[in-house]
Design a protein that fits this description.
- This protein is α+β, with helices and mostly antiparallel strands.
- The chain has a domain of 103 residues.
- The chain is built from 6 helices and 4 strands.
- A hairpin with a 4-residue loop joins strand 3 and strand 4.
- Helix 4 packs across helix 5.
- The N and C termini lie far apart (48 Å).
Length: 155
């Protein structure tokens, strides 16, 4: 997975659980910005306990949503995590997800590369049947037809 600026998060905040501060099973590698917004919150889902299908991605807005088929309590926990971490309200997070899609649509990254850079975006494209650059280009309004002729190309 691609993380621009990563940091180590104490999943259970060390200020609340000082005995867990140096426990390996309490440490998570995460995006620095998300870690800062999490702060000492105990209401963010543990990434080790989240199923692959708990979070969905809406295209082309690249907004993260809870899977509507989850139990009500799990949908609530997902929504809480989205809100606390600012996954939709922080333009940088949304733009990064969009940039991964556009890079794939424009042919700058093949699907294998997309899976390495952003497994969540790649999985959501597959789940929604957007499994070709052309389909993604159509969703994002980026036609993949021939490029228009430049004035100096015309006889």
């Amino acid at each position: 997975m691609f993380l621009v600026q990563g940091s180590i998060d104490h999943f259970h905040p060390k200020s609340i659980y000082p005995k867990c501060a140096y426990e390996w099973n309490n440490l998570r590698y995460c995006n620095s910005k998300a870690n800062n917004t999490k702060d000492n919150s105990e209401f963010v889902l543990d990434p080790f306990s989240v199923g692959d299908d708990w979070f969905h991605l809406l295209f082309p807005s690249c907004q993260v949503t809870p899977n509507p088929n989850l139990a009500k309590i799990d949908r609530y926990k997902v929504r809480q995590s989205i809100d606390i971490l600012h996954l939709n309200s922080d333009d940088d997070f949304v733009q990064q997800r969009s940039d991964f899609c556009v890079s794939y649509a424009d042919g700058d990254a093949d699907f294998d590369r997309l899976q390495k850079l952003s497994p969540f975006v790649a999985r959501e494209l597959l789940r929604q049947g957007l499994n070709t650059p052309e389909k993604v280009a159509n969703i994002f309004g980026r036609g993949r037809g021939p490029k228009p002729a430049r004035p100096d190309d015309i006889n």
